[in-house]
Amino acid sequence: MNKILIVSFALLVNNLNSEENKINLYELYKELHANPELSYQEIETSNKLAVILKNIGYEVTQNVGGNGVVALLNNGEGKTVMLRADMDGLPVEEKTRADFASKKKAIDPEGNEVFTMHACGHDVHMSVLIGAAEFLFNNQSLWQGNLLLVLEPAEEVSGGARNMIKDGLFTRFPRPDYNLALHVSASLQAGKVGYLPGWAMANVDSVDITVKGLGGHGAYPHTTKDPIVLSANIISQLQTIVSRQIAPTEPAVVTVGSIHGGTKHNVIPNEVKLQLTLRSYTDEVRNETISSIERIVRGSAIAAGLSEEYYPIVEIKDEYTPAVYNNPDLVDKLQKSFSESLGENNVTKVSPVMGGEDFGMFGRVEPIIPTALFWLGAVNEKVYEKSLRDDIPLPSLHSDLFLPDAEPAINTGVTAMSNAALDLFNLN
Ligand SMILES: [Zn+2]
Ligand SMILES: [Zn+2]
Predict the structure, then answer these.
(1) Per-residue pLDDT tens for 185-201?
(2) How far is CA 138 from CA 1, 131, 132, in A?
(3) Contact in structure between 323 and 202 (CB atoms under 8 Å)
(4) Are residues 336 and 410 in the same domain?
(5) What's the predicted TM-score (pTM) here?
(6) How far, in Å, from the CA of 320 to the mean position of ligand 1?
């Protein structure tokens, strides 16, 4: 892409109320931030964004895999580039004290009334997508092809991508040659972007284990099969999966995040329930972790003298999030594009994390589409410096104190995303 274009574009995104870009993205961001909706409940959000995209001039399809929105711009022969943003908020009570902080409540799947917050920055993602949508619509002379904008619901519970794919995202609409997304970073300054080739985010599995026993009086343990002692043994043994089973060079996590059993000091219960989160990058490590859990659980039950009908039940939940693998060739192209549009100093290589992102699912459909997710810096410069100076940890994603420095982050996101799309359209 030539330099003149970058300069004129920089001017354009620095003045979001200019003639060409009519949508004030910061106002849109504040409105989205103040009105978060939980996963599977993104009705107002998806309607609002669908209207904006229709008004810009996109061909908009709603209710793709639930509340999903697909906006298409056919601009002649060429590549198809998909840009994704996610729409859902979290059941978190916001404590940021921003004047546009969310005070919204919703009913969660268990029927409880909960506060809601955009604590994962999806409000920034949506604002960036709209900014890129407007820029690329207004500058159709600079590119040719199909632009596919995807607003994904239910990312936080890992259902949106799967449901959109099932509902024909890659068959009803032009199939992308490239899938692109960004996620705000709670550790990178606003104005910067982070890139990473290869494994970037982890496979996420949730596992429920019901440890069964034969309850009775706490003073007569010999007449029982104690599921609490058995659970303690299982939990200790689970620690050996990462330390002794998986190759030290392969990242993996097994965390028991919840244990519930028993009612009283002197009653041995009939069962204990455990909830685990598992993380990995490769399918091999994922499968090995799961089969190790099944083996340990079964072996521990046998050692406790339980008969087969009392073996623990292991349930691998189907809300599985596949790891995000960033296509190295695509990341190489993105890095060059970002360096041109943002300046080399604002483009950093980042480390992989064991967090999960539903976006990985879009890169799993055969034949595999080159896919990449990059990180958008969102930390206010002064806050960042203060945290370094005073050794105060920055609020992480999902924290009730997470507040992106939205204006520079959105400007940077729109610049990075729009130029990356242009560069991909213009590849020979
Ligand atoms: Zn999140
Ligand atoms: Zn997120």
Answers:
(1) 999 999 999 999 999 99
(2) 17, 11, 10
(3) yes
(4) yes
(5) 0.91
(6) 14
